[in-house]
Amino acid sequence: MYLITGGAYQGKSNYAVSVFKFDNNSIADGKTVDFEEINKYLCIKNFHILVRRMMKDGKTTEEIKIIVDSLDENTVIITDEIGNGIIPVDQFERDWREQTGRICCYIASQSRKVVRLTVGIPVIIKDESK
């Protein structure tokens, strides 16, 4: 598995397409993909939104980890960093940030490579693919 993270609009999806040569049919959008269809894709962008949708659907962190474990070992997950900044007043928003962070930590631990993009520049955090 591969994890690409960073702030919003930092070039994460463009980086994934340029490195992994994905076409549009290979990329699932966490905003809209059916949960049952997620295993059909090589790349999942907006993973943080997918987690939000799954939580709204009642899935627990452990259930989401099981879904992550079912993904192909070469899946690329693209997520925004959402744990920085002002702490939300709304309880669900706080829970979403926390659970997304925990799930992304889990994904990073399972990933061969973790890259953080900032202003379009990739910073390799972990690389066990060599």
Description:
The chain is built from four helices and six strands. The chain has about 130 residues and is α/β, with parallel strands linked by helices. It has one domain (about 1-125): Rossmann fold. Strands 2-3-4-1-5-6 form a six-stranded mixed β-sheet, sandwiched between helices. The chain is globular and about 40 Å long. The model has no long low-confidence stretch (mean pLDDT about 95).
Largest sheet: 6 strands, mixed
Strand order of the largest sheet: 2-3-4-1-5-6
Judged by helices, strands and strand pairing, the structural class is: alpha/beta
Mean pLDDT: 95
Radius of gyration: 14 Å
Number of strands: 6
In percent, how helical is the residue content?
25-40%
H/E series: EHEEHHEHEE
Give the second-level CATH assignment, the architecture: 3-Layer(aba) Sandwich
Q: How big a fraction of the residues is strand?
A: 15-25%
Find the CATH topology. Answer: Rossmann fold
Overall shape: it is: globular
- Please report the distance between the alpha carbons of the first and last residues: 14 Å
Question: Low-confidence runs (pLDDT<50, min 5 residues)?
Answer: none
Topology:
Blueprint: E1 2-6, H1 12-20, E2 27-29, E3 43-45, H2 47-56, H3 61-69, E4 76-80, H4 91-110, E5 113-118, E6 121-127
Parallel strand pairs: 1-4, 1-5, 2-3, 3-4
Antiparallel strand pairs: 5-6
Key descriptive features of the protein:
130 residues; alpha/beta; Rossmann fold; six-stranded mixed sheet; 4 helices; 6 strands; 37% helix
Short précis:
The chain is built from 4 helices and 6 strands. It is an alpha/beta fold. The chain has a single domain, classed as Rossmann fold.
